[in-house]
Structures are given as structure tokens and as C-alpha cells.
User: Fold this.
Amino acid sequence: MKIRTLAACAVLAASSLAVAQPINDSFMYQGTLNDNGAPANGLYDITFQIHQAESGGTASFSKTVSNIEVTDGLFEAYVNFALSGVVFDSDQTRWLELRVTEAGQPGVTILAPRQRIAPAPLANYALRAGHADSSDTSLQDAYENSEIITVNSVRGLVDIRSSPTQNAGLVLTNELEEVRAIFGQTVSDSGLITLYNRDNIPNFRFEPDVSFGGGGFAQIARNNSGASGFIFDGNRDSSESSYLGIQGTNRSIILDSSIAGNNSVILPLNSINSTEILNEAGVAENSSNSSVSLTADSVAVDNIASVTVNAPSNGYVLVIASMELSASHVAGSTTSVNIGVSTSATSLPTNGDVETRLGSTVPSGTYDHAVTVHSVFSAVEGPNTYHLNGDLSTGSASAAALDIQLSAIFIPTAYGSAAVQAGPNIPDEFTPVRGPLTQYDIVMEQNAALQADLTRQQRELDAMKMQMQQLLRDSQNDPRPTPHDK
Assistant:
């Protein structure tokens, strides 16, 4: 079989411009095919080749479309020019050569002469960047020769031009020649994108980082005056660590991975609540080098020092106090001083005081003792104040507290039984007497600790369950669209 003649026309349908209807990346070819002078019928394979010359040379692109149906000589084929950016990389003329084979049969017929590929109107429009007139000015002209392209838009005229004074490749300006966007390079020949608001103030800037080692830099304004609202530095001070700054009128947020420790994250005051910090432990402390004299009185209790810890939630506070007790003793009388920590500034707790006693047979003189006391207290969310108190018995003796140290440590959770301070002070001579712990007492304490920990676990699980239920209720009442609604 000999294929003799072919008549055809071609339409380009490939473009990256935004138009009313989507444009695909295919070249549609329509034509007629004659076999020995009569209209052909059946299936044919056609190879489409793009050449840079009318004859000779090597094809710069070749694509075979198989099983093209030909009916009464008429056919159409779609050729996807996936390499169109390379094939049509200049304004030079291109030529189309077709090679036809009957499907499933040997032999090929090269149709001659080659057909010149003429630009479609859409391609001319793209070449001139949607120019409002019939000018041949292209984006390349605007970039290389400082020529101006004027584009009609629904918001008015937009000029595309180069601007050597701004070190920019392309600048978009409105009809008043007010800069709206810059696409080009900086003085260091790095890429740059800058967008302006209606007051000609830069609102967005994106460019490579000038630090050694490269990276990117972005800045977004938070108002029409151009004040910084968002700064991202991909290579902070050439450290290859990133920096993120979010700035507001009265507060800011900083994330700096180039810094170690707490300063790597800076958040506004009170931006994290007790739940978010997991009620972590904390400490408060008060110390003094002053001397505090105790009053010789059978009723009054002297407040030596106090400390306040602000608990993020309910929990426990371990209070520890140490001091030097200096007592002036007179022989023939008994000197008794009780020291303890308490939630009250005027009393001592039942089992939180320690007595220092000098009997009547002890010679007169000044005696110094190191005293340390501690107790565990229940704490409520908010401020909790604890006191170091002293009680000097009546008589001719005197006493003073020196080198005072008072610390309060908040602990959110008990992992065993915690016997907290309660009730007024009872003189030691009236307290119950018991023997040493037995094995039974030890086992009972272990069981109590285990039960207390199980109770804590259940309490935390119940609180977590309540939070999850609340989150579920909040999500069900959230008016914002879910991903399925979009």
C-alpha cells in the first residue's frame, strides 16, 4: 500500500496563561489522509517530528501516536509536547514532519514537504504578556531593554518594566507609576520579591539570606506603615540555624534555634497556663543574716521568717528551715526553745517543732545549736504562705535566731501516703509514746503508699477523661468547617 497525499491543519492548545477555560498541554492535529487517491479508512500510527529546518537535520522532538482512527480520510490526533519548553525555546521557525504507518503493518511513509508551524493567537498573546495593543514588546524586551509592557486588567492598567535604579529585573507599577511589586535581584545578584501596599510601603519581602552559607529570609509587615510582624531567617548569623520572630504591638514571640537553653524560646508573659506546664514543681526561698530575738513568754510565739510559694494547682509543699539558735542560759533554771514551721504565724504545729532544752544543772553561759525543721503541707492553687516560728519559755534566759534559711518546694503529686501538718502544738511530754516499728507497721505503710498512688492515678485518669469529653463537646459546637465540609 502506498500513502500518497495528506492535507491537515494544526492548532496549538498549550499555554500557562490564566484564561477563561483551562488549557491542556496537547497539540491537536486534524487532517485528511488519502490512500492511492482514495480516502483512507482504518487504524494508522503517525509519528510527529519537530525540525528546525524545512529540510534535512535531526528532529528536536519526536512523538508517535498509535491507532489513530481514520474514517473517510478524516482524522484527528492529540500530541503531548511534554518538552515544549525545550522544543520551542526561541522565536525561530519550527517545521513539522509526519511519518505514517498502517497499524500493525511494516513500512513507513514520510510525508513531504514539511509543514511550517505558525504561532496561534494565544501564543502571540503570551509572547506580548497580554499587551493591550498590537506592540511586539515581550517580557524579554522589558527585562533586557527597559521597555514597558502595559497590561489591561479589571483593576486598571499595569506596567511591567525593568528598573536598574532599584536593582530589579521586573517591576510592576500602576498607571500612576507607583510600584506594586518587584521581581529581580538585590545588589548581591540574589533573587528578590517585594510586594507593596497602596501607600507604596513594602509589606512582603522574600530573598536569599545574605549570611555566609546561604539560606532564605522572609519578612511580612503587620500594618500599613511597614512595621515588622513576621520575620523568618533560615540561616541566623551564618549559624545554619533558623530564627522566627512574631511581633505585635505589646508582645512578641521568638524561636531561635541558634541559642541553647531557655532563651531559645521567648513567649509573652502568662502565655502558658498551669495545665500546659503540667503543674511542674517549683521552689520559693527566703534567707536572712539578721538576728531575731525571741520573747520569753509562755503564750506568745515569735514569727522568725515567712515564705510564699505560688502553686499552679492543688498539691503539696515541702517546707524546710534551718537556723542557728543562740541561747543565754542561767544555771538553776530550765531554758526551753521550740522551733517549727507552720501555716500560721502565731502557732507551732503538732509534729513540726523541735525543742532545744538546757536543764537547771547546766552552767550559765551562751549556747549555740544548729536547728533544722521540715514539714509537708497541703497546698491549694494560688499563693500559700509558710512561717518559721520560735517559742521561748518563761524565765531569765534569752534566745535569738541567726543565719536563717527558709525554703518552700511545691510538689504537684504524691506517689505514696503524705501525712500533712494539722492541729495545734502539743507539749512533747504529753505526746503518745510508742515502740519501734514492727514488720507489720512497715508493710502497712507500704500498702498505704500503694493505695495512695493508685488513687492518684485514677484521679488523673478521671481528669483526663473529663478534658477529652470537653474537647469533644467543643469540637461539636465549633462553627468552623471541618475538612469534610470544604
